[in-house]
Design goal:
- This protein is α+β, with helices and mostly antiparallel strands and about 160 residues long.
- It is built from three helices and five strands.
- Strands 1, 2, 3, 4 and 5 form a five-stranded mixed β-sheet that branches.
Length: about 160
């Protein structure tokens, strides 16, 4: 009998980690999300642009494996390096996402330098120059919702 069969017979299975444990929430956490949600709804009702911004997973640039897929002729996958042990000389792509809540549309800026506050500002400026100012010619205001990891989306119905 194979080891996998023995383990299966003992009610074992292959499993991945699952994020379920969290630190205690701040006592005002729900009030904070209710306030943010109210501001988003108020701004959208007034026609004020509301964007949600967040940096995305950094990717190695080059002949490295990634989790994406593409249509190719059968049995002809793209060969990539067997190991992903990048050194500092290997460039990385830093995607920064801007989501327009009112239009339900996204904009992604990709940089190759570093994920910094300056890059975030440049990304938002790029969205404004290429899309925002044409979509919102007289906004007067812009509400920006900065995401801070997966937990930020919890509890916010916006």
């Amino acid at each position: 009998m194979k080891v996998a069969q023995l383990l299966h017979n003992q009610n074992y299975s292959l499993q991945s980690n699952r994020k379920t444990e969290e630190d205690d929430d701040h006592p005002d956490r729900d009030a904070q999300f209710r306030h943010i949600n109210a501001q988003v709804k108020k701004s959208l009702a007034a026609g004020t642009p509301v964007i949600s911004v967040d940096t995305k997973k950094k990717e190695l640039i080059g002949n490295y494996v990634n989790s994406g897929q593409q249509w190719l002729p059968a049995k002809r996958p793209v060969p990539v390096n067997g190991h992903d042990f990048p050194n500092p000389a290997v460039p990385r792509a830093y995607p920064y996402g801007i989501y327009d809540l009112g239009r339900n549309a996204g904009f992604v800026n990709v940089g190759t330098d570093h994920d910094t506050g300056g890059f975030a500002v440049a990304s938002i400026r790029g969205w404004w120059r290429f899309e925002g100012r044409h979509l919102y010619p007289r906004p007067g205001r812009l509400l920006l919702r900065q995401m801070a990891g997966e937990a930020m989306g919890r509890g916010c119905g916006c």
